[in-house]
Specification:
The protein has 3 domains: 177 residues, HUPs (Rossmann fold); 66 residues, Roll (SH3 type barrels); 88 residues, Translation factors (Elongation Factor Tu (Ef-tu), domain 3), CATH 2.40.30. It is built from 7 helices and 18 strands. The strands form 3 sheets. It has a 6-stranded antiparallel barrel. Strands 3-2-1-4-7 form a 5-stranded parallel beta sheet, with helices on both faces.
């Protein structure tokens, strides 16, 4: 008996290509779907949409499946990009890839696939799904260096029930080896990096197309004026490069070199950017955060108590204590966390199980509150 129809989101990269191949080998009726989520920069040197579509089509031909291209650019601009700009305008640093997964890849794409007669969808994400007594659980990938549960923490039970993640049990090195063995030309294609619609282009240049500059004072933690910023939207907590203070030597490190400057706080009311020197400056260390706009994979909040959290993607899990609230949650850290940033996601874990999370509203330590 043939397995059901599955529509695979194919990006032209090696991961989604191998995911499609594996499902076909397992007996599924596989259809590829290439999603175009961005318009306006097709002739730009940083846009790879055409190349990616060619790669996806070539892979589909090699593994013997049909592929269709669909344009979700309008949905993306309305559901993801508009919020991206609104968050930056408010001085926060959003993670659009989290929202893209929740609103496009596992909503617009899922709905489109169901209309095609599919029973489920699949992607090349490195995560695992397990069905237990209390529903579906999202687990970290076997390859922890590639685990993407952080980006998928807003998925719900219905979405997980209808999604397959063929790469969750594989190492990235295995995926590339398999791609080479079956003759996929993109086996060594470089992984995409950065925000999907920005690609490799300079971030400040891109943001400047959509948001106006609004210069204001740049001050130290002691209130000393050291320069002028171009607009709070163009900086993020913990930022080191591009501040414009590289030549100043207010304080030196033990080796006699100038201690680097970091963005530590944004005061929206006074349009002031605060900068500090030294990676371990107290203003960069957070002992508590508050989060809102919560989403729980099980459909309800976990019990208060000891858990672990990621406050950014490339970060080791940090121990924390969860304190529940009506519309959000707070986390207390025994070991202060570095550069916790309003607008980013705080994603909670219990061992290998991703529980969900929320958007960071404020980050606090004994000396200052870094609020949006």
């Amino acid at each position: 008996m043939n397995k059901p129809r599955v529509v695979v989101g194919m990006s032209g990269g090696v991961d989604s290509s191998v995911a499609a191949y594996l499902l076909k080998e397992q007996g599924y009726e596989v259809i590829g779907l290439f999603m175009k989520n961005w318009e306006g920069d097709d002739d730009d040197e940083y846009c790879s949409t055409r190349e990616d579509l060619i790669d996806a089509t070539s892979v589909a031909d090699v593994i013997g499946i049909d592929i269709e291209a669909v344009n979700f650019a309008a949905e993306y601009r309305e559901r993801v990009f508009a919020q991206f700009l609104a968050e930056y305008s408010a001085g926060r640093t959003p993670n659009p890839d989290v929202l893209c997964n929740a609103e496009i890849k596992f909503k617009a794409f899922l709905d489109y696939a169901m209309a095609m007669g599919a029973q489920c969808i699949a992607t090349g994400h490195y995560v695992r799904v397990r069905e237990g007594a209390n529903g579906f659980e999202l687990l970290k990938a076997l390859d922890l260096t590639k685990d993407q549960s952080y980006f998928l923490h807003r998925l719900n039970q219905d979405q997980l029930a209808r999604t397959l993640f063929p790469l969750g049990e594989m190492k990235k090195t295995e995926v590339r080896r398999l791609a080479e063995s079956i003759g996929l030309h993109n086996a060594r294609k470089r992984d995409s990096t950065g925000i999907c619609f920005i690609g490799e282009r300079p971030f400040r240049e891109f943001l400047g197309r959509y948001l106006p500059t609004r210069p204001g004072p740049m001050k130290t933690d002691e209130g000393v004026l050291v320069g002028e910023h171009i607009g709070l939207a163009f900086y993020t907590i913990g930022q080191r490069k591009g501040i414009g203070l590289g030549g100043m030597r207010e304080r030196q490190s033990q080796d006699g070199t100038s201690a680097p400057w970091f963005v530590a706080r944004k005061d929206m009311a006074s349009n002031t950017l605060y900068v500090v020197q030294g990676h371990e400056h107290p203003w960069l260390l957070t002992s508590q955060l508050d989060a809102g706009d919560v989403s729980w994979i099980a459909g309800k909040a976990p019990s208060a108590g000891a858990l672990s959290v990621k406050t950014r993607y490339r970060q080791a899990d940090a121990g924390c204590e969860l304190i529940g609230q009506a519309a959000g949650f707070s986390l207390n850290f025994a070991v202060p966390q570095w550069a916790v940033t309003p607008g980013q996601s705080a994603v909670l874990y219990e061992g290998e199980r991703c529980l969900g999370g929320g958007v960071i509203v404020s980050a606090k330590d004994a000396r200052v509150t870094l609020a949006a």
